[in-house]
Specification:
single chain; alpha/beta
Length: 284
């Protein structure tokens, strides 16, 4: 097994055939997500999968960490998002902001104390689920005041974006990838991810032809498949964090989207399964 893993890691390092996900794919093939990907994506959409594989190879030819998957830079992403807001995006179908459960506070000392009041390994948020999510900070539990899920979730609400709190790969598959590929539910996405899992995550988005920006964690992230698979079932004792530069950059981008969109202001979220979908004066 160690010899096989060493070979797969070397294939990843060399980006053999243009794919740096040999080890991830090998291990996932024997797990539920691998079966899901083959059954619900590859076999149901063979032509789109082939096109996505080709697009993926083009993306992964770039050296270094991929931070975007779109035709252009962040400025092009911003312009496209604001233009899309004149259509179905006003109903919460345009932009998706996908955060991770591991950004929630951990139980312990300091401001976290009891940890996330909504629990950690789930799609819930005690603030985003309120009818008045913009409640003054002093009325919130201490752990919520410094939580990135709350901060980015409220910024996404101002920008008219839907919010999803990622948990397991299988949940992401059913909640995000199937609607994306079957119905093109979301046109664009901002995803907060571990650098390790980012190459594997990019592939289905290429198949779904989503314009996406990726925000890599700077600390507390999974560094190998063993850590990834434990986090995939909620066994994550670290809290993932962004660099201050990445945090400021994403906040500025969401603020600019909020300023440039041509939609009624979003007041709060409504739930659609695991999704937080923004509501406006026109959609309730």
């Amino acid at each position: 097994m160690r010899i096989i893993e060493a070979i797969l890691r070397e294939l990843d390092r060399r980006k053999f055939l243009g794919f740096p996900i040999w080890e991830f794919s090998y291990h996932s093939f024997f797990r539920q997500y691998g079966h899901f990907f083959l059954r619900e994506i590859a076999l149901r959409h063979p032509l789109r999968t082939l096109a996505g594989l080709w697009a993926y190879r083009q993306v992964m030819r770039n050296d270094g960490l991929v931070t975007r998957l779109c035709a252009g830079d962040e400025e092009a992403f911003l312009q496209w998002t604001c233009s899309e807001s004149r259509g179905n995006a006003c109903q919460g179908d345009g932009l998706l902001v996908a955060l991770s459960f591991c950004q929630k506070p951990l139980p312990g000392s300091g401001v976290s104390r009891g940890g996330c009041p909504a629990g950690r390994f789930n799609h819930e948020c005690a603030v985003l689920g309120r009818p008045d999510p913009f409640v003054p900070e002093e009325r919130l539990p201490l752990s919520c005041r410094t939580c990135d899920v709350r901060a980015f979730g409220l910024a996404a609400l101002r920008a008219g974006a839907a919010v999803y709190i990622m948990t397991s790969a299988l949940d992401i598959g059913w909640d995000i990838l199937v609607p994306l590929i079957d119905r093109h539910r979301f046109r664009q996405g901002i995803f907060f991810l571990c650098p390790y899992s980012m190459p594997a995550f990019i592939l289905p988005l290429c198949i779904g032809r989503m314009e996406a920006l990726f925000v890599p964690y700077d600390a507390g992230d999974c560094r190998n498949y063993s850590q990834f698979i434990r986090a995939d079932v909620g066994q994550k004792s670290e809290r993932t964090q962004l660099s201050s530069v990445a945090r400021e950059k994403v906040m500025a981008l969401l603020d600019r989207i909020a300023t440039g969109r041509d939609c009624p202001p979003s007041r709060h979220f409504r739930r659609e399964g695991a999704l937080f979908v923004p509501t406006t004066a026109s959609n309730g």
